[in-house]
Structure formats: C-alpha cells, structure tokens
Design a protein that fits this description.
Chain A: It comes from Astatotilapia calliptera (Eastern happy). Chain A: Pfam families: Nop53. Chain A: May play a role in ribosome biogenesis. The structure holds 2 protein chains of 2 kinds. Chain A is mainly α. In chain A, about 55% of the residues lie in helices and about 0% in strands. The longest helix of chain A is centred in the C-terminal third of the chain and has 31 residues. The two termini of chain A are about 50 Å apart. Chain B is an alpha/beta fold. Chain B has 21 helices and 9 strands. In chain B, strands 7-6-8-9 form a 4-stranded parallel beta sheet, covered by helices on one side. A 3-stranded antiparallel beta sheet of chain B has the order 3-4-5. Chain B has a two-stranded antiparallel ribbon with strand order 1-2. The longest helix of chain B has about 45 residues. Classes of the chains: A mainly alpha, B alpha/beta.
Chain lengths: ~450, ~550
C-alpha cells in the first residue's frame, strides 16, 4: 500500500479527531497526573466562514476601526466648537497646530459682496389666485356657508364596525324578523324577455316536486293502549301486538336453529367408517357370479343401442307420407265440425267467458289493493332497509298510577327520525363506523422486550 | 350493418334517474352539503319501478334521484353560498394555523350566511299549503326547544325554537283552537283546529333525558332550520289574521309563562258581532244546517269550558302543559313562585276554585289530580271531580283519537262520559251498596240499547215493559215504538222476499255484524268479571 501524502494527512486528521473526542469525555484520566485534559485539548479555533452576513458581527474584531472612527468624530466636533478645541490641542499633533480644513475654506465666501437673492426660490405659482380663493372662503365661512366637500363629510354616516353583521343576518338568529311572505305581490323585475336574455329569470319549480312522497300522515298518534293510565282492554291489545312481534322474532331464530341443527346419532361411529372404507373389497368373491349374469345383459342392451339404423326403404317413406296426409285431413275435418258445433255451445262459451272475466277482475282488484298497501310501506331508498322502531309499551307492573311517577318510554327524537324515514324523506341511516385507512402496527418497546 | 342500432340503457327510465354520487359530482358539493341542500329544497330520492333497468343490469342497492330534480337544483342560489362557506372554513383554518388572529377576526366578521325565505315562498306558494305542513314543523320545534344548551347543536337554534313554540302556544290560547289532548308514555299529543286544518303535534315530557345515539343530528338540524323559518312566517300570518301584533310586544317572562293577553293591532271595540242570518246553502236540508249549527254551538260552549275557574298548580305537576290547557279554555292559572317566574297569584288566594296536586297525601276537599283537566278537555264538558281526588285510583285516560264504530267494544268509562255529555247522571262509584249495583246494571242496559241501532225486538219488548209501569211516558214512546215496529215489519217482509242467493249473502253480512256485537258482549262480560273480582278483593281487604 502506497502511503500518499493526502492519505497520510487524512489518516492523521482522523486520529486527531478521535483523540479530541476521547479527551473531551467526562472522567477522562491522563497518564501523567500533572497534565489535565483541558491542556491536552488544543484550543483550536473553529474555522468560520466570514463571508456570511451572520458572522460579520459575531466573529470579526472591529475594535480598532471603531476607535479610529471615534477619534474622527471627536476631531470634527472640535473644529466646529472652540471649547472642545483645547482638549484636542492637548493631544500631541506632530508640530502642526490644528488648522481649518481646506474644503471649509473653499466653501467660505471670499468676496464681501453678498450673493444675489434667487427670486425663483421665493416665487409661488398661482399665489394670487390662491390668496383670492382663501379670502372668498373666509368671507363665506364668516357668513355661515359651508363648502360642498365639508358638507359631504358631515353628512357621511358613521360606519358601525362593532356590530356583527353576520350574526344578525344568520338564519337561526333568535331575534330575527318575520314578515308577510304570502301577502306581498310578486315584484315585477322586468319583462320576461329581458330577464331571459340577462339570465336573471327565476326557474319555475316543477309540479312533481310538490307531491308528497308518502301518503302517511306526519304525526301518527300512538294506539289508545299507550296512554299513561290506559284502559284495561286497550292495554291488553297493545301488549298482544308487542307479543306478536316478539313471537315473529323468536320464530325466525328458531328456524335458523332448526336449519343448523344436526342429529348427534347421525355422526359416524368407528364401525360405520370401517365398513364404508372396506366396502366392495371383502365380499367380492361371494357375489362375483351373481354380478356376472346381469352385467352381460346390460352389455347386450347397450350394444343394441349403439348399432346403426338401417336405411329407410321407398315403401316406408310412402307409407309415412300417406299417414301424414291422413292425419292432416283428420285434423281439418275435426276443426270444421268443432266450428259448426260451437253454434250450439254458445251458452257454455258465454259462461266460460264470464268466469274468465270475473277472475281477471278479481286479480285486478287484488293487484290494486296490493299497490295501495305498498304505497303505505316505506320505499327501499338506499343500502339499508328500513328498521321500524320497537313498540313503546309499558308492562302492567311498569304502569304508573299518577303523572308524577310516570317514566317516559321511547324518545320523541327517535320517533321523528324514524317517521322521516318512513315517509321517504330521507334514506335509512346508520351510525358511521370508524374505519382506519392504514392498519395499526403494534410494536413492543425495547424496554419491554428486555423484560419479556 | 348501419350504426343506428338501439343500445341498452340509453333511453327510457335508465336516463331519467341519476345516482346520488353522480348528482353530487354534478353539483360539485360534498355529501353533507348535498344532503342539506336536498332537505332544504324538498327533493327526495326516488325508488324506480324497475330497478334493474335503471341500475344498468345490476341489483346493487343504490339511491336514485330524478334527473330533472337535480337539474332544477343547479339553479339554486344557495349552492353558491355553500361553496363560499367551504372556502371560508378553509381560510379560517389557515389563519388559525398561522396564528394570525387579526385575520381570524376579520374572517369571522364576514362569515357567509344565507336565508331561506325564497325557498319557503317557492315550496309553499299559498298560506294553506304551509299550514298543511306545519305538523312536522311544530313537532321539530317543540323537540329542539327541550334540548339541553350544550354545544352539540347551535344554541341559537334552540333559542329560536323556544321563542317560536311559545309564540305558537300563545296563538292557540288567543284563538281558543285546542281540541284534543292525549297523555301517552312517549309524550303529550295535542290537536288544534286552525283555519279549518286539524293540526296534531307531540311534545316530549320535560323530564325525559335519554338522547339516542343512532340519530343523525345534522339531518335533524337541517330540518329544523327549514321548519323554524316556516313556522315563523306562518306565525306572523296567523297573528295578523287575529289582528295581533307580531312579534308580541309583551315581555318575554309573561309570554313564556303563557299568562299574557296579547295586544291587538286595532282594538276592536265591538266584540259582539251581530249574528248573521244563516240560510241553507244549495243542496243542504234544514236538518243538516241545524246539525251544523248545533255543532258550532257546542264548539262555542267548549271554548269556554274553564271560564271563571281559578286554578293553582302545585310544584310536582307539569306546569307548562297544564297552564297551556287551562288558558286555552278560558281559565286562570297560577303556581308557586319558586317554580317559574310569572305566577300571578299565591296559594293563599281565597278565590282559588281548584288546586291541582299529584301527591298521595290526603288533604282538603278540592284537591284534584292533573288527569282531570285533560279528560275534561277530551270530553268537552266538566267532569265530576270526585273521581280525581287525591289518593283515588284514577279512571283510565282514554285516547281521543280513537273513533269507535257501531258494535265495537266501548269501555264503560267512555260510556259514562258519553252519558254525561248527553246530560244524564251516571251510576255511582263501585264502592256503594248492592242496591245501587242494580241500578247501575239497569242503566248500563239502557245505554247499550240506545247505542244499538239495529232495533232488535227483544229490547223493544223489555222497554215496553218498563213503559207500562209509568203511564205518563206511554204516549211519547208509543209513537216512536210504533214507527220502529213498522220498520221492523217491513224489513222482515223484504227479507222473506229475497232470492236464495241474495238471502245467503245477507245472512253472511249479518253474521259478520253480529259477530262484532258478540265479541263486544264477551269483552263487557270479561270486564264485569274483572270488576267483580276487584270488588271482592276490596271487600276482603276491608274485613
């Protein structure tokens, strides 16, 4: 391996870095007790980039420049005020006493003639006009006439910035105003053609939307058995209905149970399993001869079916044709006689027609009744089916005798929500489940891993 | 082949419907915004008749809307407001994230809002249309006004609902339009008649606190938004129809205590209008007109049911409901000062006629349980107070919404009530002696006979037996009885002359009718047996 200079220097730099890190660790002990770690760590200045603005103030030493500037300032002030001249003079200037600066001498006037006045500097354009308007305004103000701009300023109303405009205009503001919305005549905004061209015409609401989506009433009163102090029979009626609902539920459950049930006696025992596996293997020798005989017959029959049919002869074809013709003739004759006989069967034909009509009418009525019943049912509007509420019933021992002891059953909020669904105003909704987009991964902390 | 082949699902019902997601994308709204828009505009999903056709062959359950409805939605100016609101939310979030509080304030001040007035005008072009839909609106408003004022739904909405419900109740009081009240286990059902429309609404009990989790509050809040606007406009119109100032200028405490008498716009000096002569309209007989007049008179009488009576409500009874009912029929009411503000007189007032209490303690004579008021309202007369004293087992609270047909079972309490309405005095309590039991039995028979309009002959004979005992009544009843007998004879002749087939049908019908009567008798017998057993128990307890 050739040790180049760069390699060597970089290796050395790395070693030095390592040494510095090691020394700076707390509790580092040196071999020589006199030498402390702080001595070893060469206080090497960190290399800083002085081109950055941030580092100008931090790392550059401007003390000497500042001293020089201060001195300059003192000198300048000394020149202007004579009191300070003395301490300046106290400072040793090499032989030369303080003389005024050359530039100051140049700037002084050297002639005794005063410089001419610049008239243009004092001239004001429109001075006369302005003066006259000011005088006029004064006169008018003395008479009490206020100029137009001032009048407008005074007429300006104060903008109320403190009142919250949005709150008063909100739809659910409790102090909102109502007016007669049906009493006002419709404002005629303009000619219909004009409105149409400027796209300001209001769209008419289609008639179909005014029909109610369901024939059910908005508020369905509970059955008389739902009173807080009900009559015996109406209460029993309500209980019976609730009972029927429960029975239906139980029926469905029972049906499910029955479908899933199996007879324990049907489970295969070891004996039957063995028998099944051994079937056909053990008893072969006894039944072989019996099986041979029926097998042969079967084969013959099978062979017969596969045999190719012989071609039809001319005679056979002629015979078939003649038969066909006869058959057709027979049928036509029969039809004719039937038609002739129908004349005598009019009465029975009439009765059969009547019966058919009756059946069709009955079916139509039934279908109409079914449709009407369907209208009252809630429609299937979305993914979920409509689930009717549980019946609000209080059992006989829960009935309160007085209004004070009444415990309300069911909530009006739920009732209204279900009523809206029943009347097809909204689709049946369920509470939204919390679904995670990404799976949660469970990781044990290192500390716990050590324990377990 | 030419290119003019008909492709499937390109015409007919498949093109009339659009799925919900497609509609949402067409409108460029998010799903909750789309739902809100549909609810506000009254556009509901439609179930097509042939789902397979519309769904392009699949039977997956999807929500369909009519395409024309969605096209109509595109012209709605509120859609723009929804989009503005979405942008407002986005900007607000950014400002919050950058902690620019001045920007947050500025944005909040200029929050976009919208009003629903034009939608109401469009959906309900006339006042009567709006009145027909007011059931739902009332139920929602009453429901929301009972919510707790936590942050779940806007507190402003709850306040607005409370204000509107109180105004509605004051209107019903001023117009005396309440007709029926029913206390159920769910809530209190009221029915009022306003401008010829029967309006039913439910009010939940004040002390029910369970809030079900399955209900979508956003949907309900949107409905409420629409309904509060509707109810406000309807209230304005109703108040102006009674010449009352809207919003009422009475203080809120008096208004919410339902003890205010609303100020009129034009004070009507002559409150007694001249009675107009009523002529029968075309096609009506004098009988029908008289019947109508009788009804009107009864209604007028019913409106002044509690007039002149002074009530005092104890602390444990439902104050608002009772105050509403009492004031609707002209009575005066007050309660304890610690319950609510607005009580007019104290317990110690000597002019109090009835005090409503629900406690089991035994006190003075005129303490009544609250069910008396509700039963009086339903019966349209003042019922005897004895059945409702403290500690007495209350008679059952029957539903006024049930209409019984001929021959159905009618509970004896209802019979008693009907008897009272007709002005007869019913039999006394069960705890009396056996003599009165006999009387009661006779009277029950009489009532059943009067109900039974089939005109059975056996009952006629029994009646005639009674008639013979008191000769004074003979003449009057004889004529009626003769007429009835004649009619019965004619009926029998007609039955004899029927053909076999018709007779068969007739028998079937009568069998069906009599079955109902038989069932009713069976139930009555059961009830009697039940009552007897209870009586025996009580007697044993006494001994």
């Amino acid at each position: 391996m050739i040790l180049t200079f760069e390699n060597l220097s970089s290796n050395m730099a790395a070693a030095r870095r390592l040494k510095r890190v090691a020394i700076s660790q707390p509790g580092f002990l040196t071999l020589n007790p006199k030498v402390t770690p702080t001595d070893l760590v060469s206080s090497r200045r960190k290399r800083v980039n002085k081109n950055k603005k941030k580092n100008w103030n931090k790392y550059s030493d401007v003390q000497d420049v500042e001293e020089f500037l201060e001195d300059l300032v003192n000198l300048k002030f000394c020149f202007l005020c004579e009191e300070a001249a003395e301490p300046v003079k106290g400072k040793k200037r090499k032989g030369k006493s303080s003389r005024p600066l050359r530039i100051d001498l140049i700037l002084q006037h050297d002639s005794l003639v005063a410089p001419p006045k610049d008239v243009l500097a004092y001239q004001k354009p429109n001075a006369k006009k302005l003066r006259r308007t000011a005088e006029r305004a004064e006169k008018l103000a003395a008479n009490g006439v206020v100029p137009r701009s001032k009048k407008r300023l005074l007429n300006r109303t104060v903008v109320d910035r403190m009142s919250k405009k949005t709150e008063t205009e909100a739809n659910n503001n409790p102090e909102r105003d109502f007016y007669d919305i049906w009493g006002q005549e419709t404002k005629d905004l303009g000619e219909p053609w004009y409105l149409q061209q400027t796209r300001k015409k209001l769209v008419k609401r289609p008639e179909k939307l005014n029909e109610k989506p369901s024939v059910l009433p908005a508020v369905e009163v509970i059955a008389p058995g739902g009173s807080y102090n009900p009559d015996f029979f109406s209460h029993q009626e309500l209980l019976r209905e609730a009972h029927e609902v429960e029975l239906k539920k139980k029926k469905v459950e029972d049906k499910l149970e029955r479908q899933l049930a199996y007879n324990k006696a049907d489970t295969a025992t070891e004996e039957t399993i063995l028998r099944e596996q051994v079937e056909g293997l053990v008893e072969e020798s006894e039944e072989e001869e019996e099986k041979d005989a029926p097998k042969e017959d079967g084969e013959e029959v099978a062979v017969g079916a596969i045999a190719v049919a012989d071609k039809k002869t001319e005679r056979q074809r002629k015979r078939e044709k003649a038969e066909k013709m006869k058959e057709q003739q027979r049928l036509t004759e029969r039809r004719q006689t039937e038609q002739q006989q129908q004349l005598f069967q009019l009465r029975s034909i009439k009765t059969s027609i009547k019966q058919q009509e009756e059946t069709t009418q009955i079916r139509q009525k039934r279908r109409k009744a079914k449709e009407e019943a369907q209208k009252a049912q809630p429609r299937r509007l979305g993914k979920l089916k409509f689930q009717p509420q549980d019946m609000e019933v209080q059992l006989s021992d829960e009935l309160a005798g007085s209004l004070r002891q009444l415990k309300p059953e069911g909530s009006v909020l739920m009732d209204r929500f279900k009523s809206l669904q029943k009347r097809n105003l909204i689709e049946p909704r369920e509470r939204a489940k919390f679904k995670r987009r990404l799976k949660v991964k469970y990781v044990e902390k290192r500390a716990f891993k050590e324990i377990s | 082949m030419g290119g003019l082949q008909k492709k499937k699902f390109e015409r007919g019902s498949a093109t009339n419907y659009i799925t919900r997601n497609r509609a949402r994308k067409k409108l460029q709204l998010s799903l909750p915004d789309f739902r809100r828009l549909c609810i506000l505009k009254g556009i509901y999903p439609h179930e097509p008749k042939h789902k397979k056709k519309v769904n392009k062959g699949s039977t997956a359950p999807r929500t369909f809307y009519l395409l024309k409805d969605i096209r109509f939605l595109l012209h709605e100016p509120i859609v723009g407001k929804f989009r503005e609101y979405k942008i407002f939310v986005r900007k607000l979030k950014k400002a919050y994230g950058k902690t620019e509080w001045s920007a947050v304030e500025r944005l909040r001040e200029n929050k976009p809002t919208y009003k629903l007035d034009h939608i109401i005008k469009e959906r309900y072009p006339t006042f009567i249309d709006a009145l027909r839909d007011i059931d739902d609106a009332l139920c929602m408003c009453f429901l929301f006004s009972t919510f707790a004022r936590t942050g779940k739904c806007h507190v402003q909405t709850i306040q607005l609902c409370r204000r509107l419900t109180v105004e509605w109740m004051n209107y019903v009081i001023a117009s005396r339009s309440l007709r029926k009240v029913f206390l159920s286990i769910k809530g209190i059902y009221y029915q009022a008649e306003v401008m010829g429309q029967l309006i039913t609404w439910v009010v939940p009990y004040q002390f029910s606190h369970d809030h079900p989790v399955d209900v979508d509050y956003r949907v309900m809040a949107t409905f409420t938004e629409l309904y509060t606007t509707l109810l406000g406009f309807v209230s304005f119109r109703l108040y102006s129809s009674l010449n009352l100032v809207y919003p009422p200028k009475v203080s809120w405490t008096k208004l919410s205590a339902l003890s205010a008498s609303l100020a009129r716009v034009v004070s009507s000096a002559d409150e007694e209008e001249a009675q107009l002569d009523q002529f029968p309209s075309e096609g009506e007989d004098m009988e029908k007109m008289e019947a109508r007049e009788k009804e009107l008179k009864q209604q007028e009488a019913q409106k002044k049911l509690f007039e002149g009576l002074k009530f005092y409500l104890n602390r444990e009874v439902p104050r608002e409901s009772l105050a509403f009912v009492i004031r609707c029929f002209g009575g005066q009411v007050s309660w304890d000062k610690s319950v609510c503000i607005g009580s007019t007189y104290d317990v110690t007032d000597e002019t109090i006629t009835h005090q409503i209490i629900d406690r089991p303690s035994v006190g003075k004579q005129y303490y009544i349980q609250p069910q008396w008021l509700y039963d009086c309202v339903n019966a349209k007369i003042l019922l005897p107070v004895e059945d409702y004293f403290l500690g007495v087992t209350l008679p059952p609270h029957l539903s006024p919404f049930v209409e019984e047909k001929e021959g159905d079972y009618v509970p004896p309490e209802k019979l008693k009530m009907m008897a009272l309405q007709r002005g007869e005095k019913p039999g006394n309590e069960q705890e009396e002696d056996e003599e009165e039991e006999e009387e009661e039995g006779e009277q029950e028979e009489e009532e059943e006979q009067e109900e039974d309009d089939n005109g059975d002959e056996e009952d006629d004979e029994e009646e005639s037996l009674h008639v013979k005992v008191t000769p004074g009544k003979l003449k009057v009843e004889n004529k009626a009885r003769l007429e009835q007998e004649e009619k019965a004879e004619e009926k029998r002749l007609a039955i004899m002359m029927m053909k076999k087939k018709e007779k068969y049908l007739y028998d079937k019908i009568m069998f069906g009718k009599k079955r109902k009567v038989r069932e009713a008798n069976k139930l009555a017998a059961k009830r009697k047996a039940h009552d007897d057993s209870e009586k025996e128990k009580k007697k044993k307890a006494r001994k």
